Amino acid sequence: VAMVDALSGGSVAGMPSFTFRDAEVAGVRVFAARTGYTGEDGFELACANADAPALWAALLDAATPLGGLPVGLGARDSLRLEAKLPLYGNDIDDDHTPLEAGLGWAVKLDKGDFIGRDVLKQQQAAGLERKLVGFTIPADARTIARHGYPVVDGGTQIGVVTSGGPGISVPGSVGLAYVPTRFAEAGTKLSIDCRGKLAPATVVAGKFYKRK
After folding, report:
1. Which of 64, 123, 156, 185 has the most Cβ atoms closer than 10 angstroms to its Cβ?
2. Rounded to whole angstroms, how far apart are CA atoms 186 and 169?
3. In this predicted model, what pLDDT tens digit does every residue of 136-194 receive, in sequence order?
4. For residue 27, what are the CA distances in angstroms to 46, 61, 68, 110, 114?
């Protein structure tokens, strides 16, 4: 935050989270948003295509002395997973509802009509049959549960892993999976079929990592 703010002449540090504004960073006009998909504080900067190389170079020059490096999608994915941020196409899709995904806060059922509202109200009244949960696998299991791996109970598949990866800020590995509601309580023990090997997993509440 301090780095980008310095490049903007002190014009963006005061922005509250999840707000946006026009700004100038390193002499480039940008649309600055105090958002991100990593669980950390920072900015997303959008600019004209022709200005992107200059903006990138300025950001990299400022970040390098601070230990900053360019990173790719894999690094971003590990961060969003530890912050338990769902990824469309993996953890949320057309086959799962926002209520099942734990995103009920994003669909205000009492704020007027919208596509799917009736179905969500019916589901809410009837109770959820499945939920998206976070789980950890201990480091000594030496395995990572990946997207599509089955969650099993007594040899029967009861769910499926939607995202998984190594724990960077937490021990072992972490992941998300849809399981029947009766298996969704924190502390519940699960078994995950990792390419023929059953790995022990434990359901956890909330985010795997939360910044101070």
Report:
1. 123
2. 20
3. 999 999 999 999 999 999 889 999 999 999 999 889 999 999 999 999 999 999 999 99
4. 13, 14, 21, 45, 42
